[in-house]
């Protein structure tokens, strides 16, 4: 493995980590929005706040990590993405800011009207942000981001049937992932009613995401042929593993076996991104440069790997300890 390949692998690990941890947080906002009125949805919202409150801001470190590695290690690709997709990039940035601010201010607000405003802002931003991230992924996967600054169409690159499909799929996936995590969290704290509530949400959203995924195969074939053929020829085993992991997760939810459901649920999401990477390899942009061609000149990739190794030795144990500490805190009832 070359330094460039290792750096691209590190970049993709950051993308997957953000999809997994940040995605579960975004999905919590979806269930916050659909929890009901202030009285009927109070317990659901309290569970969501307890589960995501201590770690939601820490999860954004993976987004920052991915952007920095892309910018420094593959500058031409970063410039192409920032040029063609600057509108959804900007909307994602606003979504992250509004979501975080509203989540913090809602806890401090005393007036019902302000609590409702902050709550609605938090929830809608939690849906809009993964949607726009999904449209960006759809633009990349369907080959609508050419190499170069000011080369792609800034509107149709991300506003097209496939990108919208990818955005809807992103929202559904985050909602399903959050329901899986929250059902397990509630079960751990012996909140039987809440655990069953999120169990039902997980089952319903799981079937919806599955239907959207399989229902969009023809769209993938017509709108993203390079991705489709790559998935069939190179990554079919990853697709099968993702489907199997999702099915096992649904079965575990149905039978109320929560011990390993977070692992299988996470694997179902991780393998989606692994399949995408395998299908598109070695191109970073469909029809564009390979990893080697897009990488920064030597010795930058090798130097970045050393820097990432040192930083990772500090960051990863710290994040792991943070999750362990707060995962063990039982929600007050």
Helix/strand layout:
Elements: H1 3-33, H2 42-52, H3 61-73, H4 75-84, H5 86-108, H6 112-141, H7 161-188, H8 192-215, H9 217-223, H10 225-233, H11 236-254, H12 261-280, H13 291-294, H14 300-327
Helix pairs in contact: 1-2, 1-3, 1-6, 1-7, 1-12, 1-14, 3-4, 5-6, 6-7, 7-8, 7-12, 8-11, 9-10, 10-12, 11-12
- First-residue to last-residue Cα separation: 52 Å
From the spread of the alpha carbons, the general shape counts as globular
How many strand elements?
0
Number of helical elements: 14
Summarize the structure.
This protein is mostly helical and 333 residues long. Helices cover 77% and strands 0% of the residues. It has helices spanning 3-33, 42-52, 61-73, 75-84, 86-108, 112-141, 161-188, 192-215, 217-223, 225-233, 236-254, 261-280, 291-294, 300-327.
Structure, described:
The chain is globular and about 55 Å long. The protein has 14 helices and no strands. The chain has helices at residues 3-33, 42-52, 61-73, 75-84, 86-108, 112-141, 161-188, 192-215, 217-223, 225-233, 236-254, 261-280, 291-294, 300-327. It has 333 residues and is mostly helical.
List descriptors.
333 residues; mainly alpha
